[in-house]
Design a protein that fits this description.
Elements lengths: L1 E12 L20 E9 L2 E7 H7 L1 E7 L5 E3 L1 E3 L11 H8 L4 H6 L4 H10 L2 H17 L2 E7 L6 H17 L3 E9 L10 H22 L1 H4 L5 E4 L8 H13 L3 E6 L7 H8 L3 E4 L5 H8 L4 E3 L2 H6 L10 H6 L20 H11 L4 H8 L1 H6 L17 E4 L16 E6 L2 E2 L1
Parallel strand pairs: 1-4, 6-7, 7-8, 8-9, 9-10, 10-11, 11-12
Antiparallel strand pairs: 1-2, 2-3, 5-13, 13-14, 14-15
Helix pairs in contact: 5-6, 6-7, 7-9, 9-10, 14-15
This protein binds N-(iminomethyl)-L-glutamic acid (NIG) and fe (iii) ion.
Length: 424
């Protein structure tokens, strides 16, 4: 049979199967390998995988890539990013090095609100261009699917502007994108004294407008979900406000996710699991009660350790990823790319930090960055693993042993990225 592309001489082919439901607990360390493997691709999708001899006997291709014994893994899915924003916060980076605290900067009107100002001022084209370049950097490091949040508009007009930019990026950039509405990221200055009024605005005006945008968007046409997210924290939203916003999003057809337990744990995780949230993200200060709630629910736990690293947390300040997996949670990893807490493009770096600080094994971090992350984006039926029928999003590594992904630090372990069957 004729196909478009064959990858042959794959030293270790790591499929990361698990499309039905996220892998949890011990399942996350069961990584199957095909030695001396090959993959056949047609129309951007995987049509077969197996041993090199079998595949070359059955398939002939226009283009063959000889992997020369190197490993192949699925393209990474980055399930939590704030890729579209104006300006930067390099001055806050320097302030924090000199001792200022992230929450103090936020309380003093910097932080998210500083980026909000730049994002409101920026044109759609400027936001598109800067985010496009960020996606290029992520793609070069192996990320082929990216969730992107709004949350730097904090008014209806700018939140919609960000969503339009995300849609334009999805059409123009090779990466597959998933949009998330994070209108409840923090209070904009004009509502600083009226938090209830802002929650009303999110529920009564923004969510209907965003739901309307989504039905007209090509995301809806292609069956890509829309998420609603809230930052549950001091200087942001309490549990009752969060629940109201997430329920309103659900009623408008959105899937739910939450920024929770980053600095304070006041029950948001338990509420999110009861609501059936797809994921709960950050979890830095989650304790046994929160971890038990996650383990007993379908909600995926998503630590974001690049944020802890960037904020200079000591080792005890990181989420307890090890305890989460040991308790039977389904765990995913993401960069949290944003100009404040996590200026990080690299999933391999996130995996490397997770191995060393959270003591997650290479197998657990690979599953957490591929198939489980695809589940966290509601996209596990089409990306996140090397399985027949899925998008041919494949990474040829620079090493024969796939664990080199997070073993050497600071370089790029990815030799070649294939996105939907095209060599990038
Ligand atoms: O995921 N925690 C809240 N939101 C982002 C940070 C956004 C920012 O600092 O601009 C986060 O860390
Ligand atoms: Fe975030």
């Amino acid at each position: 049979m004729n196909v478009d592309l064959i990858l042959k001489n794959v030293g270790q082919l790591v499929p990361c199967t698990g499309s039905e439901k996220p892998l949890r607990g011990k399942e996350m360390s069961a990584v199957d390998l095909i030695e001396n493997g090959a993959i056949a691709v047609a129309d951007g999708k995987i049509v077969a995988l197996g041993n090199s001899a079998e595949i070359s006997a059955k398939y002939a291709a226009e283009q063959t890539v000889d992997c020369e014994g190197n490993a192949v893994v699925p393209g990474f899915v980055d399930s939590h990013t704030h890729t579209v924003f104006g300006g930067d916060r390099v001055h806050e980076f320097e302030m924090r090095i000199s001792g200022a605290d992230y929450m103090e900067i936020m309380a003093a009107g910097g932080g998210i609100v500083s980026t909000m100002r730049h994002t409101r001022e920026a044109s759609e084209d400027a936001l598109f261009d800067s985010a496009f370049q960020r996606l290029d950097q992520m793609l070069a490091l192996g990320t082929t699917t990216v969730e992107i949040k709004t949350g730097y508009g904090l008014n209806t007009e700018t939140e919609l502007k960000i969503l339009k930019v995300i849609e334009r990026l999805d059409k123009a950039h090779p990466c597959t994108l998933i949009p998330t509405f994070l209108g409840a990221h923090t209070l904009p200055p004009e509502y600083k004294e009226d938090p209830a009024g802002y929650v009303d605005l999110v529920v009564d005006e923004m969510i209907p407008a965003v739901a309307e945008w989504y039905t007209q968007s090509h995301f809806s046409a292609e069956g890509v979900p829309l998420f609603v997210d809230v930052f549950t924290e001091d200087h942001a939203f309490d549990v009752a406000q969060t629940e109201r916003i997430l329920r309103a999003g659900q009623a408008a057809g959105m899937l739910t996710t939450i920024h929770v337990d980053q600095f304070n744990a006041f029950g948001g995780t338990q509420m999110a699991t009861e609501l059936g949230a797809v994921s709960a993200d950050h979890l830095d200060v989650s304790g046994p009660a929160e971890i038990a709630a996650l383990a007993q629910s379908g909600t995926i736990a998503v630590p974001l350790p690049a944020a802890n690293f960037n904020l200079g947390h000591d080792l005890s300040g990181y989420p307890d990823g090890r305890a989460m997996v040991d308790a039977g949670c389904a765990l995913a990893l993401a960069t949290d790319l944003n100009p404040g807490s996590a200026p990080c493009y690299s999933m391999p770096l996130v995996m490397a930090i997770s191995n060393r600080v959270m003591r997650l094994t290479p197998a657990e971090t690979l599953v957490a960055s591929t198939i489980n992350s695809a589940h966290a984006c509601g996209m596990a039926d089409r990306v996140g693993s090397i399985e027949v029928g899925k998008a041919a999003d494949l990474l040829i590594l620079k090493a024969a042993d796939w664990r080199h992904l997070s073993y050497f630090l600071g370089g790029n372990p990815v030799e070649m990225v294939i996105k939907a069957g095209s060599v990038i």
